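Predict the 3D structure for this chain.
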Amino acid sequence: MHCVFATVLAFSIVCAPIHAQTPSRTHREAAIALGEEGLALLDQGEYAAALRKFDAADELIPAPTFGVRAAMCLEKMGHWVEAIHRYEQVVAIRVDPSWPEIHVKAQQEARVRAEALRHRVARLEVSVVGPPDAQYSLKLDAAPVDLDSTSTVLLNPGEHVLELIHGTTSDLRRFQVAEAEHRTERFTLRPPTDFPPSSSSLHGTVGWVSIALGVTGVLVGSVTGYVAYEKKNDLEVRCPKRICPPTAWEDNQSYDRWRTASTAGFVGGTIALGLGTLLLLTEPSTEPAPTATGRFSLKPWFGATTAGFGGEF
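Done. Predicted structure below.
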């Protein structure tokens, strides 16, 4: 049958102009050779290779005879949706009355085959529930899907991946469809949770860090102050009238260092505690103030050389 088709095909290309201009002899011969090679590959079950031959021939001379055979290759390869589209392209070609009958028969064959495949392909319906103004996009097998133009998508039998992208979130679905199956995938869009920016978060963080540094400074000042105090008592015994012998000079210098460290610790700690307290007291509140019943409060206190915290119920 394919041998007869090849002979008629060659005759039809030679005798019938498909374009407004008659194709050159070189194009006609090349198209005929490609078509015959495609038919041989189609007989051997080499559908992908045959498709390339028919596509190349169709580019040289667009003809229903080449198009219908290319669509048959797609159908044999299991690409039914693509085959339907190719058959529809063949049917849509405007047939001139002067064309040989083989082209008309090719269009008739394309129409019949496309209708048969429409009953075999699977169908996917996507339902998206969410706010009316929600912005989202869909991808089917990594290709964008526009549901504004069609509510049902044709699918080849086999495995597919459907992805819904909503803002920064993505919902991925993997599924299998069988021949003529009608599948529905439903998505529910979650409204984005708007967390108002907290103006108090940085305020409070810096405040508590300052409190911690202040407490550390006061502790350092207390420890070094105690060491300095012990050294002072020792020097008062060894240095009558505040005049130290050479044997006490090193201890005197050590006393000065501990005293300076104590003063720095107290001063730095007091400043940090004051700053932290101020920041915490002026921190904006986003929550209603708690009632006074059963409330415990912690308040810092400061002295000339000491500091601490006090609480009240």
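The helical segments are 2-15, 25-43, 47-60, 64-76, 80-92, 101-118, 200-238, 249-281.
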